[in-house]
Structures are given as C-alpha cells and as structure tokens.
C-alpha cells in the first residue's frame, strides 16, 4: 500500500486488481452461495441470469464505483461524510449505520444456523 497526500499508509490500493478483489470480497456473501442458486432454480434457471448480469453490469458496479470514489474524494469518517455536503444530510450516515447493524444481526443468525447444522451433522441418528 502506498501513502498519498494526507492519507495514512494503507488507505490506498497499489493496483486496480486489489481494489476489485476487495469489492468482490465485500459483495459476495451467504446470499450468493446459499440462496442465489435456489432462487435461480426456482425462477427458471439460466433465463434469470440475463437480467441479473445486466443489472450487475449497468447498475451495481457503477453504483459501487461511484460510492467508493465519493468516499475517496471526501476522505472523511462516515459520520462526517454527508454532513460535509449539507448539514441536513447527517441522517444518511445514521441510516447507513442502522442498515449495517440490522444486516449484521441477520447474517449472525444465518452463520449460527450453519455452525449448528454442521455440528448436528456429526450426531447419530441425524436430527432431520
């Protein structure tokens, strides 16, 4: 990682591959591994991939790129980022925090189920 301007070391990526791999690591989660194949099968198989890939290319990737560019441009902590534009926008930061907390609560439950089923799979007879 290199140091640029007033940023601390570790705040930038050395190349574009590191950036895109971190974006993929951030975006891929339980939903992509656990639920997406089920929904793909339930809603028509491969035909569902066409609108999914189109929305990924034309909506998700550009939005994520703009959001990270905005964060790099303002270079402020989340609670100050939107209020630096206009004081009325402070609630956006609080909304992002609330969404992150609720999302993490949801995923903690899913991970607990996965760990519980993993350990239950070693019992005899199987509980299901």
SSE blueprint:
Layout: H1 16-27, H2 30-42, H3 49-74, H4 78-81, H5 90-120
Q: What's this, in brief?
A:
The protein is an all-alpha fold.
What does this 3D model show about the protein?
The chain has 128 residues and is mostly helical. The protein has 2 domains: 1-75, no CATH class; 77-128. Helices cover 67% and strands 0% of the residues. It has helices at 16-27, 30-42, 49-74, 78-81, 90-120. The chain is extended. The N and C termini lie far apart (49 Å).
Low-confidence stretches: 1-5
**Rg, alpha carbons:** 20 Å
Classify the beta-strand content into a percent band: under 5%
Q: Biggest sheet: strands, sense, closure?
A: none
Helical fraction equals: 55-70%
Number of domains: 2
Number of strands: 0
Structural shape: extended
**What is the distance, rounded to the nearest whole angstrom, between the alpha carbons of the first and last residues?**
49 Å
Given the structure, what is the number of helices? 5
SSE pattern: HHHHH
Average predicted local confidence, pLDDT: 79
Features:
128 residues; 5 helices; 67% helix
